[in-house]
Amino acid sequence: GAKAAVTRVFNEYARKVNLLREKDKNLEGNDIREGFAAIVSVRIPEALLQFEGQTKGKLGTSEARSSVDAVISEKLAYFLEENPDISTALVKKAIKAAQAREAARKAREEARSGKKKNRKETVLSGKLTPAQSRNPQRNELYLVEGDSAGGSAKQGRDRRFQAVLPLRGKVINTEKAKLQDIFKNEEINTIIHAIGAGVGSD
């Protein structure tokens, strides 16, 4: 109930103050809640308690869901109306999060499919030394730094099932970078195309 209420109220407010136009899609809950932290405490009579799943980690009482939704909808809508500066900043933050998510999605598609002209061939040209075998369950891919290391690795490999991919540039630190910036890194794209797999949950 809490997540649904927050998402609905923020979208209604964003449209009311024209931060979202008629042609714009609604903001997703994850975009709105990015950076948020909340604790919801609900007292429920034992006779009404219901939990979902085997681990009983999620409350499933329908009365609680509707009550939480109603309270948060009322109080949050009032807060947004009474604090326009804060509300506008929060909505703009959510819009930026949505734009970043969409940019990352497009970057994933581009990295996966190589839509740019001869992207895949350009990225791998002169870099990947493939294995003779086409069996993905047996093959191994060695990532090495620089052409000199690549030469040594090629000499020492078993060409039947070991491939070598020298990385000439600097691989971005993915732990600290934004997703759309990760997919702009040439060496990350090189690895993606060499493996030939999808990216993340895709």
Automatic annotation (TrEMBL):
SUPFAM superfamilies: Ribosomal protein S5 domain 2-like, Type II DNA topoisomerase. GO terms for biological process: DNA topological change. PROSITE patterns: TOPOISOMERASE_II, TOPRIM. GO terms for molecular function: ATP binding; DNA binding; DNA negative supercoiling activity. SMART domains: TOP2c. It catalyses: ATP-dependent breakage, passage and rejoining of double-stranded DNA. Residues 139-202 form the Toprim domain. Keywords: DNA-binding, Isomerase. Residues 105-139 are annotated as: Disordered. It comes from the Bacteria. Its EC number is 5.6.2.2. Pfam families: DNA_gyraseB, Toprim. This is DNA topoisomerase (ATP-hydrolyzing). The gene is gyrB.
